[in-house]
Amino acid sequence: MPSPLLTLQKLSVNYGGIQALQAIDLDINAGEIVTLIGANGAGKTTTLRAISRIINIRDGCILYNGQNITRQPAHKIVKLGIAHSPEGRRILARQTVLDNLQLGAYTRFDRLGIKADIEQQFLTFPRLAERRHQLAGTLSGGEQQMLAIARALMSRPKLLLLDEPSLGLAPAIVREIFGIMQTLHTTGVTILLVEQNATLALQYADRGYVLEAGHITLSGAASDLLNDDQVKKAYLG
Question: Is residue 181 pLDDT above 70, yes or no?
């Protein structure tokens, strides 16, 4: 059996005196969509930030493709094949759509490949193609979310960390975003998804982990978690 693409071993993170993650273990196999669900403040976003090395790790280990990346700087994480579409989108509002996409490829030097990938993003996200010269800050919320995902994809990741893609969006736009996510999955991109809408996340995911106060309390096939009484009561409404 092949090794997981990503493994977290006893990962712990502190914010000041607060322990945000407490010795969590997690595996993601190549080609999967895995989701983290839990209440606000459970540690979901912290987990993604720790993987992408935006924040410091107190204890534990991160293995990616068999390599220990626990102490690697963030830009090297991107070069290795991990991209992060952050909560709140964090697009560059005063730059154009095209500028944002070009900046997403900042670790690359293959100009022709970058140009081809920009056109691929415009095929995947036709609304962005229509607005390629528009300032990103003037886009709608849904368009900004599409841009955040497209920008992350410009580094050609093997693993996409996707944080709260539905946040603040109308249901029709959410369905469109998740349809695009599913299409990306069929092209071979592995996805670790953090999503406030636990029902939606579990409907699209292969497996899930439940985080509570920095601990993983439950894990399993997404279909099993959808039908778990404890999960239903706490997160599915």
Answer: yes
Task: Report if residue 103 sits inside a domain.
Answer: no
Instruction: Write out the two tokens for 45.
Output: 């976003």
Nearest to residue 223, comparing CAs of 237, 203, 209? Answer: 203
Query: Which pLDDT band, with edges at 50, 70 and 90, does 1 fall under?
Result: low
Q: Which among 78, 198, 80, 92 has a CA at the least distance from the CA of 144?
A: 92
Total count of domains within the chain: 1
Helix (H), strand (E) counts: the chain = 10, 10
Residue 40: give its domain's CATH number. 3.40.50.300
Domain, as residue range, for 190: 6-88+157-236
pLDDT score, position 24: 96
115 Cβ neighbours under 8 A, 6+ residues apart: none
With 0-12 / 13-18 / 19 or more C-beta atoms within 10 angstroms meaning exposed / middle / buried, residue 222 is: buried
